[in-house]
Design a protein that fits this description.
The complex is a heterodimer. Chain A is mainly α. Chain A is built from six helices and no strands. Chain A has one domain. In chain A, α2 packs antiparallel against α4, α4 packs antiparallel against α5 and α5 packs antiparallel against α6. By secondary structure, chain B is mainly alpha-helical. Chain B folds into two domains: 83 residues, Rna Polymerase Sigma Factor, Chain: A (Orthogonal Bundle), CATH 1.10.1740.10; 72 residues, Arc Repressor Mutant, subunit A (Orthogonal Bundle), CATH 1.10.10.10. Chain B is globular. The chains are: A mainly alpha, B mainly alpha.
């Protein structure tokens, strides 16, 4: 097939299948993967904010002993301050992720690395919760001990090691769960972008 | 140049809707997917409208946004039983219908479906008559790279067409 000769047919092809609306509002909402991801991120942002506020109420809805509040809120305050930074950058990220007008390689490279960076930020944000969860767990165990008139010094060595292993287990689970979660939600799209970027490499 | 009004924008899109038609035919293999892509490109063009400064041709700016949107508009992988085989393809209703020419174009579009997104973009710009330099500027790669990749893609496309049983 001679592609140069085909150009005349290409140039005179009918375009009846394209329907241009009379108003933009007649179109459905953007359905591009990037727009979907931005919508997901916006929803996640609100959920993260709600979850963070809910964590502040934990002492009132759990059986934590009043004497442990100070420890819990010290950890919570640290978590809150660092979260404020993350939530700000997440918000800025999904508001700024823009696309399409640069040349293809620049455009895809920017989207790809912005996503990779944001995935790493998600990991860090998740890891930030680990100390709070451990403090919460410890305060909970300590409260239970106090209720039965004991403290940590009365624990048997076996129980102490069990608690230590549990803490390590929870930490390991969270460290593994965060990357798995970002891979599940964002991994496929970034892999596809990477594949196209590889195709654009110089030969 | 001032920001385009909605009506000016839609008039320009109407004038250049051939770009939407061709990009969608190259990147999507079913009418439903093509219609989705038309809409998506129009939305992205409208969202990116403030980046059109009027220094370049509207069509040139539209090429870039349309191709970037199509390249990164990854569909969910799904088994397709709604694609049309060459032999089954219906003839379009067209007063000036030229069976040989339209059959060639139909076979061309079917073969293009087997190319990767970057190869499709290269063939699209080639068919639109863009020079290697212009294609390189749109894709963000060197002219040499465009030449190498385009030649390779044309060979690949010819092979696909040949394997489909088409004889010209």
């Amino acid at each position: 097939m001679n592609l140069d000769e085909l150009k005349s047919a290409w140039n005179t092809e009918k375009t009846d299948d394209v329907h241009i609306p009379s108003r933009m509002e007649q179109l459905r909402k953007a359905n591009h993967p990037l727009d979907k991801l931005k919508r997901n991120m916006r929803n996640e942002w609100y959920m993260q904010l709600l979850a963070l506020l809910a964590l502040g109420l934990v002492p009132f809805f759990s059986d934590l002993h009043a004497s442990t509040y100070i420890i819990y809120y010290a950890a919570y305050a640290m978590c809150l301050i660092v979260s404020a930074y993350y939530l700000t950058v997440f918000r800025r990220f999904y508001q700024q992720v823009n696309h399409y007008t640069a040349d293809t390689k620049d455009n895809l490279t920017e989207i790809y690395y912005q996503f990779r960076l944001n995935m790493e930020r998600y990991h860090s944000f998740g890891f930030l919760l680990i100390p709070l969860v451990l403090v919460w767990g410890s305060a909970s165990v300590y409260s239970k001990l106090l209720q039965s008139g004991r403290d940590f010094s009365t624990l048997t060595p076996t129980l102490k090691y069990s608690l230590l292993i549990l803490a390590v287990g929870i930490t390991a689970l969270m460290v593994l769960a965060m990357p798995a979660w970002t891979r599940f939600y964002y991994g496929k799209y970034t892999r596809q972008l990477k594949q196209v970027l590889d195709e654009l490499k110089e030969e | 140049m001032d920001q385009l009004t909605e009506q000016e924008f839609l008039r320009l899109i109407e004038k250049h809707k051939g770009i939407l038609h061709k990009v969608a035919r190259m990147y999507m293999d079913t009418p439903q997917d093509r219609e989705d892509l038309h809409q998506e490109i129009i939305i992205q063009l409208w969202k990116s409208c403030n980046s059109f400064k009027g220094n370049s041709e509207f069509s040139s700016w539209m090429y870039r946004v349309a191709i970037n949107t199509a390249i990164s508009y990854f569909r969910k992988e799904k088994k397709r039983n709604d694609t049309v085989a060459y032999e089954q393809a219906g003839e379009p209703e067209n007063e000036n219908y030229d069976p040989a020419r339209d059959r060639q174009l139909e076979i061309f579009y079917q073969a293009v479906q087997q190319l990767n997104p970057v190869e499709k973009a290269l063939i699209f710009y080639f068919m639109e008559g863009l020079s290697h330099r212009e294609t390189a500027a749109h894709l963000g790669i060197s002219e040499v790279n465009v030449r190498v990749k385009l030649n390779r893609t044309k060979e690949k496309l010819q092979l696909i067409i040949k394997q489909s049983g088409y004889e010209s």
